[in-house]
Every structure is written in C-alpha cells, then in structure tokens.
Amino acid sequence: MPETPATMRQLRSLVTPEGELRLSVATVDTPSPRPEQVLVRVEAAPLNPSDLALLLAMADVGRAPADEGAAEPTVTAPIAEPVMRALAARVGQSMTVGNEGAGVVVAAGESPEAQALLGATVGFSGTAAYGEYALASPRMCLPLPGGATPVDGASSFVNPLTALGMVETMRREGHTGLVHTAAASNLGQMLLRICLADGVPLVNVVRRPEQVALLRELGAEHVCDSSQPTFFADLVAAVKATGATLAFDAVGGGRLAGEILNAMEVAVVPADAPYSRYGSDVPKQVYVYGALDPRPIELSRRFGFAWGVGGWLLTTFLGTLPLEDLIRLRGRVAAELTTTFASGYTDRISLTEALDPAVIGRYAQQATGQKFLLLPHS
Amino acid sequence: MPETPATMRQLRSLVTPEGELRLSVATVDTPSPRPEQVLVRVEAAPLNPSDLALLLAMADVGRAPADEGAAEPTVTAPIAEPVMRALAARVGQSMTVGNEGAGVVVAAGESPEAQALLGATVGFSGTAAYGEYALASPRMCLPLPGGATPVDGASSFVNPLTALGMVETMRREGHTGLVHTAAASNLGQMLLRICLADGVPLVNVVRRPEQVALLRELGAEHVCDSSQPTFFADLVAAVKATGATLAFDAVGGGRLAGEILNAMEVAVVPADAPYSRYGSDVPKQVYVYGALDPRPIELSRRFGFAWGVGGWLLTTFLGTLPLEDLIRLRGRVAAELTTTFASGYTDRISLTEALDPAVIGRYAQQATGQKFLLLPHS
Q1: pLDDT tens digits along B234-283
Q2: Are the C-beta atoms of residues B341 and B368 closer than 8 Å to each other?
Q3: B281 contacts in A (CB within 8 Å)?
Q4: Is B130 part of the contact surface with chain A (CB cutoff 8 Å)?
Q5: Sheet strands (E) in B5-138
Q6: Domains and CATH numbers, chain A
Q7: How far apart are CA A142 and CA A122, in angstroms?
Q8: By CB neighbour count within 10 A (0-12 exposed, 13-18 middle, 19+ buried), where does A196 fall?
Q9: Do B307 and A312 touch (CB under 8 A)?
C-alpha cells in the first residue's frame, strides 16, 4: 500500500458575510482515523442533488468568474439576499462537501470493525467525499464485491439505501404501496427496479411526457405526469389501483404533497360512503426527502384528519435501523451493484475542473439524465 | 322512568345540490339501542366549534331567512361556490349534528356494559346529540358523579378528553413540553389548568393582547401573542424555556404551524453549533386538530428534516387508547368536573331557538368567551 501523504487537496464551500459563495480547493492535513473510523483514498464521488445544494448554496453561479490570482483554485459567485437569510447558520464556515464516494481503505482505527476493512475497496457515506482522502465510519462502509471498481461503487450508498429505505419504511409503517415524485431520477429508476423485483405497487409521478415514456420502457405500470390537465384524476386512479397510502416526495415545495394526500383520500373513500367531515380513518403519509422546489409546502386540506407530512432523512433512518437490517440492505446493494443499483455518469471531472465556471454551469442544472462523477486523484 | 315516546325532535343539517344550507328540526322515530348501545334522553348539549362547522357548512348565515310556511321549523342560507366544492361529499344527505351532550340513560342494549348504565346520568359523545334522544356507546359514556347535573356534564367529553389526550400524546411520543394555539379558548384554558396541575411546561399562543392578560390571570407563564411584531422571537424564547417540541394547533391554515416548527428548530440548535443543511435531529411535531383558518397550511421549511405535521382527531386517539387508560382519563374528568373541566355557558337555547336567524348569527361568530348550550327538551 503506498504511503499516505501528510497533506491532501479537498473541495471547500464557504458563504461569506458579504453574500458571496467561495468555492476552493484547499490543501489541508490528511486526517487520522479515530479508533472507530477508517481513512479512504477517494477514487470516485458522485455529484448528487443533496451535495449540490450544500456546494452551491443557491448562489448565482452563472455570474461566477474564477479568481485567477489566487494561490489555490477559487471561484466566487453572488448569493441573493433572501437566500442569505436562509443560510445565516453557515456564514463564515469553510465547509467540506460530498456525502458519498468509493475508494480503498488506507488506514484504520484500532477498533475491530475498522481494522477489518483495511485494504478493502469500499463505497462509503461521509461528509467530505470531495477530497483525496476522507474519513468514514465502518457502519457507513460497503465493501464492494470482487471485480467491482470504485466507479461502480461510487453511488452505492445514498441512492441505493434511500430507495431501499423507502420500501423498508413502507413495510415498517404498515403501508402496502408507494407514490414517488421526481420518479424519473436516478433514484426513481432504482426504486422502480426494486418495486418491480419485490412486487411492491408503485405510482411514479413525473413532470414531463418524455419521462412517462422513459419509465414505461423500464416497466413502470403507473406513471402520472403532473404537467397534464388530467393529473389529479390520473393520480386518484393510480392510487386506487395500487392502494398506495405512503408517498416519498423529492420536490418538497408547492402543492404536490397536498394533492397526493387529497388523491389518496378520494381513492380510499368509497363513492357511496356516508359523509364524514373528519374524513376517512385510513392513515395517509407523505415523507419529504428533498427540496427540489424551494417554495413553501402548501397543503389544501380536503383529506380529513388521518394524515401526516414529515421530513425523511437517510442518516436518521439508518440510525434507527437494527444492525442486522443494515447488513441485509448493504448485502443487497453489493449483490446487485451493477444491475438494480447501477448508476451511469455522463461526465467525469477532477477537483480543479469542479471549479471551472463552465463546468459548474453544467452540473448546476441538475438535468435529468445528466450525472457528474468527481475523480479526486485525476 | 317515564315512557320513551315513539318519535322525537332532532336537528338536521342538509346541503342541497342548488348550493343552499337547510337547517330543520325533524320529527323522527326514536332509535332503539343495539346490544352494545345505550339511549340517552339528552338534557344539554354544547355548541362546540367542531359542531358548528358541520351544522353551518360555512353558509352565509347572515342571509338566512326562516321559512315561515314549512311544517317543521326550517332556515335556509346560501353557500358560496368554492365552499360547495369542498362539501360535495355531503350534498343531499340530511345530517344529524352534535358531538356530545349529557342526560339520563333511558334504554340499554343487552350487553353488560350497556345494561350497567341504565338509569345513570352520563356525559356522552356521539353524532346526534342535538335531539331529544341520542344513541351512544358505553365506551363513550362518562357516568357523572353524585350531585352533578346534565348541565355540569354536557361538555365532559370532547374538550376534557382532547386536553387530556394532548398531554397523553406528549408523554407517549417522548416530548416534555407543549405549544398550544388558540390557547384562550375553553379547551385552551382546560389544558392550562391540567398543565399547571401536572407540571407540564406549556407555551400558550393567542391572537390578541386581552387574551394574554386572561391567560396570565389564570396562571400561564408563557403566552405569545401572534399579533405582536416580536411574536417569532417571543415564541423562540418560550420554546427554549419550556423545551416544547410538540404543538397542538387549532388554527390549521396559514403560516402558524410552520412558524412553530421554525421556532422549535431555532430553540433546539445551540448558537455555536456547526452548520448542518439537514438541520437538527431533534424531532419536532405539530398536530393539527382544528380548522379555524380555512386557508391552506403553508410550511416555509427552515426546520431541517426532523419534523412532522399531521392531523389529530379525538376519536382516533381514543380508539388507540387502552381501556385502562380511557378509564383513568374519564375518572379524572368525573373527579374534576366542576373545577379543572368546568365549562361556562353564556346562552341556553331550545331546538327551535337554534334555528332563529338572530340566534344563529350570534353563535356563528364563535367569539371567545361566548358559549351556547342547547337544551333539547326546553
């Protein structure tokens, strides 16, 4: 195993009190693992929507000139004033970025769980994957199967365990079908493959006709396009057909969450039921796990009193998961890494390229079908 | 025990396909109890906000001429078109009204639980309390203590068990303090007395300065007035002082529920905590149990991912409550009927008076401090 250097390059995101985003590649000390940690030489890390939200801080990256004179690569972009209010808590903190990646464990703390991973190629979840080396907890590491490369395993944590976590949550809370929004996403396609394999009824909500076609090609039975005038009726019909009373919503702004609850309520109340102003007693739940739409969530209540809307976070879910269940889910990801859980990448970039304004402009779009992979050592 | 007549008078609320509310006093067959039911001769029944929503159907009761020529007392009022859409499910159904009342059990089904109540004076919850007789389930009956009159017990179910249910829910879900909105209401004052007696930290949210004074007089420590420019800061300070992470919201429209979650998030995150875009992991919950504000609920998310907003309904809560807990709660209501759980009434009306347009105009206001009691046999 090659010597680990004393310093390393790492991407940083800073919001200044003056209302600017400053992205830089900093040279920092390579961290040492604590007893219950491992150090991973990061070979590949994806740019997920959740990473981009932290990285770009909703700054106006279209107006982001690179700072040519700086000792380290740096780029600066203005942040609108209303956005600054929401970011108050991070002003002045130079933040690491990158929720997941893959690479080789080059150092390990003294705990048996950490030592067991030394030399292994792993996918991992952490908070600083966008650097040459990163720390991770053994619980948050997934040893890749023989033959799998770090590129294969770069997205083995967040999307696979989120998709599996949705189905686990459904079972745990007594629901028997799912609604998923932004269903044409990488994550959405993974969830679709899981649901097809496991026989879980799934309603896919998308925003454009071409996404309907894409999901149908992948085998989806129920796809509802929110851009169509028949959307609500379509949603009611699909919810009725699937019995779905739990939704996972990546959008998290506007009226969609409330419309899903209204569709569920219409679907569960028989047409000839006597009127009750308290609505049906069938529990209906929407978990918001993303924030693609930054507007407020607007709930127009025609769905009675048996309802809930709440946040859902992968790390919180994993924290409540018994270890044997976590092992089972990780095992499934490893076994199906290049099938169910395969991720494709349209672009591969280096740390320096990640700060090129033209490149930023492209990955900031978060266009469906486009996905960037960061290779910190390239 | 006097003979029960074969027919009785009962209040009915009907929404017509033409967009009108028709209130009437119908003469109907007196119902016979099924094996697990009792028949109560109703002596008194309160007009609660939840009853008025069903009774008045958001009709324009200011334009409600009595129909002088009808065989039965009848009043008719127009309903606005957007409201009609929300009421579609009840159009054409002549509905009984009245969620609770008190009186004497004059007939009982053959089950031992029903038979045990024969002759007792009880408070009860049902769906047709606004009539001379009403059916109830023994589980939903509260035998009144010796010396208590039906007027004392008329409001012994909905408000007392809702207030006690809030504290039970708080304990069951691991919270240690409460926020309550519309806190100057009859229910709010009951909750305040319970929290003072049990040492439960309580944040009272009200809408007017005079309500602050009223609650302070009753011993409230934390009262926040949403009409004040300092409201959000006041709420943060009160939530911090009480550690309240659970709120019960009677308003259920507009921004209040979201502001409470935002205040909780600010209160639980230490000022020097490192920034996390996922927010704190302290669970924060708002249960919406009313709908004083018919607008959509608007959630501006600055409260991370550990949050929930959901409906809370007394009957659902009671349905999940083990019988021994229900008995404990009912016992407390009976023991403290004229103290903790006392309800005052400003007006007592007959069934016929309940249909007098001038009287309707007054109880439809739902003014704080004003409370009507229906006496079906007067």
Answers
A1: 999 999 999 999 999 999 999 999 999 999 999 999 888 888 878 999 99
A2: no
A3: 316
A4: no
A5: 7-15, 20-29, 38-46, 74-78, 95-96, 100-108, 121-125, 133-136
A6: 7-155+343-374 (3.90.180.10), 159-317 (3.40.50.720)
A7: 5
A8: middle
A9: no
Please name the residues in contact with A88: beta carbons below 8 A apart, sequence gap of 6 or more: none
- Residues in chain B with CB shorter than 8 Å from the CB of A311 are 304-308
Question: CB-based contacts of B365: which residues, under 8 Å, 6+ apart?
Answer: none
Q: How far apart are CA A94 and CA A14, in angstroms?
A: 5
Q: How does DSSP classify residue B57?
A: T
How far apart (Å, rounded) are the C-alpha atoms in residues A200 and A192?
9
Burial of A285 (0-12, 13-18, 19+ CB in 10 A): buried
Tokens in use for B86?
A: 């929300």
Choosing among A21, A83, A277, which should be mutated to test the B contact, i.e. which has the most B CBs within 10 A? A277
Chain A interface disruption, residue of B299, B300, B315, B320, most A CBs within 10 A:
B299
| Residue range A224-244, pLDDT digits in tens | 999 999 999 999 999 999 999
Tell me the helix, strand and coil percentages in chain A, rounded to 5: 35, 25, 40
Helix (H) or strand (E) holding B287: strand B284-288
Task: Report the alpha-carbon angle B148-B152-B153, nearest 5.
Answer: 90
The per-residue pLDDT for B61 is: 85
Would an 8 Å CB–CB cutoff place B322 in contact with chain A? no
Q: Around A31, how many Cα atoms within 13 Å sit in the side-chain half-sphere?
A: 20
Q: What is the pTM of this model?
A: 0.91
Tokens of A76: 């600066």
Residue located via tokens 């004076």? B121
Pair of tokens at residue B345: 């009434």
- The token duo for B213 is 């004074």
Q: What share of chain B is helix, strand, coil (3-state, %, to 5)?
A: 35, 25, 40
Residue B370 has a CB neighbour count (10 Å cut-off) of 14
Whether A54 contacts chain B with CB within 8 A: yes
Whether the predicted pLDDT of A7 surpasses 70: yes
Q: Could you give the CA distance from residue B284 to residue B178 in angstroms, rounded to a whole number?
A: 11
Give one word for A182, left, alpha or beta, with left for phi > 0 and alpha for psi -120 to 50. Answer: left
Q: Are β-strands A100-108 and A297-299 bridged in parallel, bridged antiparallel, or unpaired? A: unpaired
A-chain residues within 8 Å CB-CB of B251? none
Among B346, B377, B342, residue whose Cα is nearest residue B153: B342
Contact residues for A99 (Cβ-Cβ < 8 A; gap 6+): A48, A50, A51, A125, A126, A127, A129, A157, A158
Per the listing, tokens 């309904």 go with B313
Residue ranges, chain B, pLDDT below 50: none
